[in-house]
Amino acid sequence: MKQRSVLVVLFEGVQSLDVSGPAEVFAGASRFPGIAYDLRTASLDGEPVRCSSGLTLVPDGTLADAPVPDLLLVPGGAGTRTPDPELVGWLRTHGPRARQLVSVCTGALLLAEAGQLDGHRVTTHWSVCESLARDHPAVHVDPDPIFVRDGRLATSAGVTAGIDLALALVEEEHGREVALTVARHLVVFLRRPGNQAQFSAQLTAQTAVREPLREVQHWITEHPGSDLSVEALAARARLSPRQFARAFRTETGVTPGRYVERVRLEQARRLLEDTTDGVIAVSRASGYGTPEAMRRAFVKALGTAPAEYRRRFRSRPA
């Protein structure tokens, strides 16, 4: 049995789920025969740390005494906003020694301060993407995906995205069925691919203030296969097409067409992941009309065709 060592860095103000989420994934994978993750936690002084939620975590030891791990995981949390210089120094020295270097959420800020992200494509929590790019111009920040792999470096977006990244790492090492089984045991609704946006269409767009526009937003989500042209939506809102398009963009931050694109893509992905419906049926139910139109949308947004997306991400019965 080959054992992989995982070291999780702890510090004051760490986000508890950034630690426990990936830890549960690795622990779940270790229940399979022949798979073993040796998970350890460490802080600078080995003393308990208080999480941003108020919980207390007790590390296994000090960072100085920790052996070089296969995977070094740096979580995020409020404590990354004013990083401890000693912790940054430790990461600068020891980060390059780990076979894989992983950050969850704002843990990317610590790695950036330690110079570990220069020249790499990374992501982090949406709220700090702009400041990370501004303060570290040598880092290529992509604010959209939930996680990004760049060689031995892997970075993820906010909080629960760390679970998705950990599942991807397990799949890479031990196969798709192991990762899917762990996801089912954790009751993860969908094992999301890394290029999935941090927000769904409903979260990306603001909720319209005016009731007719808000109702149209809900209707689009519930009827992606219907006629969702500007003219049809404007009639539903009892506005002229020009008035509707202007008002919708002002109140939601996106054009009607862009909002419809996002909703239809999400609908198609859900159907491909959760049903055995054929590609023709999925394309019609999602409002694309033809499989070719859906294929173009998938390739443009996700870089993969619907059939390949289904092969990789469709859930299977336990």
Describe the model.
This protein has 318 residues and is α/β, with parallel strands linked by helices. The protein is 45% helix and 14% strand. It is built from 14 helices and 11 strands. It has helices spanning 16-29, 85-94, 107-113, 129-135, 161-174, 176-185, 201-204, 211-222, 230-237, 241-252, 256-274, 279-285, 291-302, 306-313; strands spanning 2-9, 35-43, 49-50, 56-57, 61-62, 71-74, 100-103, 121-122, 140-141, 147-150, 153-156. Helix 1 (16-29) links the parallel strand 1 and strand 2 (35-43). The longest helix has 19 residues, at 256-274.
Along the chain, the helix and strand elements come as: EHEEEEEHEHEHEEEHHHHHHHHHH
Termini Cα gap: 25 Å
Strand content: 5-15%
Task: Determine the mean pLDDT.
Answer: 89
> Strand sequence of the main sheet, in spatial order?
5-2-1-6-7-11-10
Q: Which stretches of 5+ consecutive residues score pLDDT under 50? A: none
Largest sheet: 7 strands, mixed
- Apparent shape: globular
Radius of gyration: 22 Å
How many strand segments?
A: 11
Residues in helix, %: 40-55%
Helix tally? 14
Structural class comes to alpha/beta
